[in-house]
Amino acid sequence: MKGHGPAYNVQTVVDAEHALIVTHEVTAAATDNTSLQPMAEAARDALEQPTLNVVADAGYSNGAQAEALEAQGIVAHVPANRAVNNQGDGSLFDRRCFSYDEATDTMRCPAGQTLRRKQLLRHKHQIIYAAEIGACGTCVLQARCTASPRRFVARHLHEAALQRMHARATPELMRLRRCVVEHPFANLKYRIFEKPRFLLRGRRGAGTEMSLATLVWNLKRAMAVLGSAALVERLARA
Length: 238
What we know:
Blueprint: E1 9-14, E2 21-27, H1 36-47, E3 52-55, H2 63-71, E4 74-77, E5 99-101, E6 106-108, E7 114-121, E8 126-131, H3 142-145, E9 152-156, H4 159-168, H5 171-192, H6 202-226, H7 228-237
Parallel strand pairs: 3-4
Antiparallel strand pairs: 1-2, 5-6, 6-7, 7-8, 8-9
Helix pairs in contact: 1-2, 2-4, 5-6, 6-7
């Protein structure tokens, strides 16, 4: 953040039953879309559970990480974050108008033409499909599809995992996520830190502050769940 030194991204995983912060991390990442897998794995290890359901907002959308988590028994419920088709001021057919055939690894356009695999862009996690040369020029739907000689459509390399992850992210779960996650964050910011900014320098210092704040929050939650006397008794036995 300009004028305020480095900015850090705080990640937390919160238990839906008791609103305890299961694990947390302070990162220097500008976005959340690389944090789905590492935070989910950290939560699984902290809870010592072989399987886990994790719910996050669209900022955590990551098909490769969702697929990797599925292989470990961790099921992600995250809305897929899709780029908007802005060709032709958004009036042209969106990629959702094209159907994918897994058996032939081809796309089918609204006019029934076949788009074949043309290029793999690993750095963008995309596969590009292209219509046959000349097919679009004679198509009655060309004006609604593309201004180019032929139509290209990008499909995510982990599209199937993205679709499964998106389908699981029901409105009910998204409402639950807001209730579970936002409440601890607000309390950490304004009641424990008393200001939405770290005071110690460096990521290590920010991590230390976050660890102390998380400990305070979890103790407050434990008192609310167990009662003060029961918590003191359990701590004495620990």
